[in-house]
Design goal:
One of its GO terms (molecular function) is sequence-specific DNA binding. By secondary structure, this protein is of the alpha+beta class. The chain has 11 helices and 13 strands. The chain has 2 domains: 197 residues, Jelly Rolls, CATH 2.60.120; 105 residues, Homeodomain-like (Arc Repressor Mutant, subunit A, Orthogonal Bundle), CATH 1.10.10.60. Helix 3 runs antiparallel to helix 4. The radius of gyration is 20 Å and the shape is globular. It starts with 6 loop residues before the first strand and ends with a helix.
Length: 319
């Protein structure tokens, strides 16, 4: 994208509210009510005749005060990024976005924080009324269900592939037919709903789940990235978290929704994907750099998580 196509994202300067509960969607105005995270819009496209759009953008380094919207949204991260967020008045662990990672935001959410490292992204609007129509359920609690996974990486091979396909059709293929984009969008809604409903669990109001702090999660990320070619064991995680072996897995699940193994594997696959798409390194070396015991191990795991082998993906991206 050229600089001429970039447009500065408009901001509305309103005072943040002291209320910490999620704002009811019915009390918000249509569309984006307030957004002050520094960004540029690189392109925008309508999704068939559904009345919703997708936009490619670039999140700039700096502070943001609040985002309030009547519609939920799904984000596809196109490059590494780092965000320190406070959602609904509660601090979240440091979010280090990886290329290909998917996150969501429910309608009516208030978010403040800092962008510590710039990030390219594509955002897809997901109005509750439209999603309910796609689901065939006029009472589906879609926005509320997203609260359980908000601003956390969603690990799903199918969802990741669907979102990437829609992104490419809208912004890279040069040919965007309504039936193709609408079908992809509707399938994404159905898969996302299946995932969030599966992950929503009853909450004990008296329970105080063990979580990793933002600083501890950042230390873990730095350690995993610095030792990507090595195996990370429970002793290392115990030192970084100051937790017993028996407590580490639950703390990870409460914080990022994944076991330690799943979380580390997700980062390694994302790193491998980045190297496959942007470099000409032999796949054997990519495997070594990302902590896989062999090229065949990388190929098997990569195909399981991404849906393609590294060689096939490289051929598609670099052709």
């Amino acid at each position: 994208m050229t600089d001429k196509r970039a447009q500065t994202l408009r901001t509305l300067d309103t005072q943040p509210t002291a209320q910490t509960d999620r704002t009811p969607v019915s009390k918000l105005e249509d569309g984006i009510r307030q957004t002050s995270f520094p960004s540029t819009v690189l392109g925008k496209s309508q999704i068939g005749s559904l009345g919703v759009s997708a936009a490619r953008g670039h999140l700039l380094k700096g502070e943001g005060r609040q985002v309030i919207s009547t519609y939920s949204a799904l984000y596809l991260h196109g490059s590494p990024g780092r965000l320190a967020l406070e959602v609904e008045g509660k601090e979240r662990p440091l979010h280090e976005a990886l290329p290909g990672e998917i996150t969501v935001r429910g309608a009516g959410v208030r978010c403040e924080g800092r962008v510590l490292a710039p990030n390219d992204f594509t955002v897809f609007e997901m109005p509750t009324t439209l999603v309910r129509k796609v689901l065939g359920d006029p009472k589906a609690d879609f926005a509320d269900a997203l609260a359980s996974v908000e601003f956390r990486p969603i690990t799903s091979i199918l969802l990741s592939q669907l979102v990437r396909d829609l992104d490419r059709v809208l912004f890279e293929s040069g040919v965007s037919t309504p039936i193709a984009t609408e079908t992809l969008y509707q399938t994404i809604c159905l898969e996302l709903w299946r995932l969030v409903k599966r992950d929503v669990q009853p909450v004990d109001a008296n329970a105080r789940p063990m979580r990793l702090s933002a600083s501890v999660l950042r230390d873990i990320n730095d350690y995993v990235d610095a030792t990507c070619a090595q195996q990370v064991d429970l002793d290392a995680l115990s030192r970084l978290t100051s937790l017993k072996h028996s407590s580490i897995s639950q703390a990870f699940k409460n914080t990022v929704g994944q076991t330690p193994y799943q979380y580390i594997l997700t980062r390694r696959i994302a790193r491998a994907r980045f190297l496959v798409e942007t470099s000409k390194l032999p796949l054997r070396e990519v495997a070594e750099r990302c902590g896989f015991v062999s090229q065949s191990h990388l190929t098997t795991t990569f195909r399981d998580k991404v849906g393609l082998t590294p060689a096939s993906l490289r051929e598609i991206v670099q052709s």
